[in-house]
């Protein structure tokens, strides 16, 4: 196991400790602000407009994932409906991303479906798109089932995410392509067991490239979410070698990371979309960003001391 893999597992384990979480929430919000566009929708919409001016598309995400009551899910649903109204009102170029668990998936799958369906229906009214983020493995199949059910109900403006580190993801990608579900492809950022996930970096990258190639070869539009220079350059070269136009796919990166590189990709004529989260429920998102690689932690520490 590489040093980076050990670092990632250690940080995800530590971040799950109740004492660490309490201290992080008390002292860490200023640092988390590096990755989060603000507490409110209007702050996020302001940042979306600024990114659009630089040629960068956006997907907005209202932070939140673990809930204990369905009335919390209803609150998230209404925030997403306000978000879609705000996007239309401001005329900005942004999709929306949501987590099924914040809509109640762990509590009541039917209530979750109704909540997500309301958001997807609202998005369809305004000719927008909603992405169901993929969480850890207890919710993988349920999320796939949810997005397929939305498509069966005529809400084909909904898509989801597949994580390359899961053993099952190549087969899932084949199914999603057959059923014309738009995907964001990622390496994966949760702590998973060997039963469910590939543990080696090389194995994850091989799976990632296989899934990307499947989409590009079939001319099926996809989002490639990565900060890995080797992956980005490989995609650019593969597209050029196979005469795949730049508008046949998009790159996605996270808000607060490599913003100058996002601008550069836009200037080179590639479609680039920035994942812009906002809200007060920042801790789980923040710790996953730090766990992805040591450079993210070093970036935040430098920001703190400046």
From TrEMBL:
An example molecular function term from Gene Ontology annotations: nucleotide binding
Gene3D superfamilies in UniProt: 3.20.20.220
Cofactor note: Binds 1 FAD per subunit.
Domain Proline dehydrogenase: 45-296
Reactions the enzyme catalyzes: L-proline + a quinone = (S)-1-pyrroline-5-carboxylate + a quinol + H(+)
Cofactor(s) for this UniProt protein: FAD
Pfam families from the UniProt entry: Pro_dh
Keywords: FAD, Flavoprotein, Nucleotide-binding, Oxidoreductase, Proline metabolism
Record flagged with keyword Oxidoreductase: yes
Protein known as: proline dehydrogenase
Organism of provenance: Paenibacillus protaetiae
């Amino acid at each position: 196991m590489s040093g980076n893999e050990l670092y990632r597992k250690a940080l995800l384990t530590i971040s799950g400790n109740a004492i660490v979480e309490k201290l992080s929430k008390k002292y860490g919000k200023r640092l988390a602000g590096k990755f989060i566009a603000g507490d409110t929708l209007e702050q996020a919409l302001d940042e979306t407009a600024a990114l659009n001016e630089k040629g960068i598309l956006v997907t907005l995400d209202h932070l939140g994932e673990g809930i204990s009551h369905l009335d919390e899910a209803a609150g998230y649903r209404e925030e997403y409906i306000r978000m879609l109204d705000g996007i239309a009102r401001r005329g900005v170029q942004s999709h929306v991303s949501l987590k099924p668990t914040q809509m109640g998936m762990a509590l009541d799958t039917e209530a979750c479906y109704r909540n997500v369906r309301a958001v997807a229906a609202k998005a369809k009214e305004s000719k927008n798109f909603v992405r169901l983020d993929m969480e850890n493995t207890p919710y993988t199949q349920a999320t796939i089932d949810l997005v397929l059910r939305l498509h069966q109900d005529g809400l084909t403006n909904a898509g989801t995410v597949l994580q390359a580190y899961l053993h099952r993801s190549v087969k899932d990608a084949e199914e999603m392509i057959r059923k014309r579900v738009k995907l964001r492809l990622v390496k994966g950022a949760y702590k998973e067991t060997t039963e469910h996930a590939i543990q080696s970096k090389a194995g994850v990258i091989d799976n990632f490239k296989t899934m990307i190639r499947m989409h590009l070869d079939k001319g099926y539009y996809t989002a490639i979410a990565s900060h890995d220079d080797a992956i980005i350059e490989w995609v650019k070269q593969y597209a050029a070698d196979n005469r795949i136009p730049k508008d046949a796919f998009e790159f996605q990166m996270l808000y607060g990371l490599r913003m100058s590189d996002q601008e550069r990709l836009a200037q080179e004529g590639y479609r680039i979309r920035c994942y812009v989260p906002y809200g007060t429920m920042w801790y789980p998102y923040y710790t996953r960003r730090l766990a992805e690689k040591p450079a993210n932690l070093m970036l935040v520490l430098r920001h703190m001391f400046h």
